[in-house]
Specification:
The chain has 196 residues and is mainly α. It contains seven helices and four strands. The radius of gyration is 17 Å and the shape is globular.
Length: 196
């Protein structure tokens, strides 16, 4: 679960922690200055120590190193100066979403996770349609589900996960058909990571 901050993490953790083990990947080189980055990370750490769903379920936090240069390279906003004054939800944001989601995808893939998602689309300030399209793009650009021609198990923009929709059985016992029938928050895509 890529997370940008504690407030955006709360709903996703509450909705998914009874179903999945969650590893929060805090990677946000777009946040400036570093004191703000650290403040948000500290707030997320403090929140996880007090939030009941995080305490009673398996939720861990991984903080990637802070490197704002990643943001500047990915967005090219130093050379394309018009991006510096662009409104929220524009091309600079798309490039930034892609950077953070790709890093989360790569981390999840490297650690043999089954799914990846982000809290970015929970924010009313972000473009959830664009974020979900990036999720599908990442998922489709790497590989398909073993033994099928499918690349996506959960439609990102259709439903909402509730505890009544899915039991707390181990994930490996849940079939692809059951995963497809899980309802999920309209603005958050849950994307499949096929095994190598």
């Amino acid at each position: 679960l890529h997370a940008c901050c504690a407030p955006c993490s709360s709903y996703v953790i509450e909705a998914l922690s009874n179903i999945f083990d969650i590893t929060i990947y805090y990677y946000n080189p777009n946040i400036h200055p570093e004191t703000e980055y650290t403040r948000r990370l500290t707030e997320l750490q403090n929140f996880l120590q007090k939030f009941i769903p995080a305490l009673t379920n398996k939720v861990t936090l991984i903080a990637a190193p802070y490197n704002p240069e990643d943001f500047f390279i990915a967005t090219n906003s130093r050379k394309e100066v018009e991006l510096q004054t662009e409104n929220e939800r524009g091309e600079r944001c798309r490039r930034c979403y892609f950077l953070r989601m790709k890093k989360a995808y790569e981390f999840a893939k490297a650690n043999s996770f089954d799914f990846f998602t982000t809290t970015l689309s929970i924010s009313p300030y972000k473009d959830s349609k664009m974020i979900n399209e990036i999720g599908y793009e990442l998922e489709n650009s790497y590989s398909t589900i073993p033994g099928t021609s499918q690349k996506t198990l959960v439609p990102a923009a259709k439903n909402i996960i509730t505890k009544s929709n899915i039991s707390t059985r181990a994930l490996e016992k849940i079939s692809a058909q059951e995963i497809q029938s899980i309802s999920y928050r309209p603005s958050t895509g849950l994307h499949y990571l096929p095994a190598d």
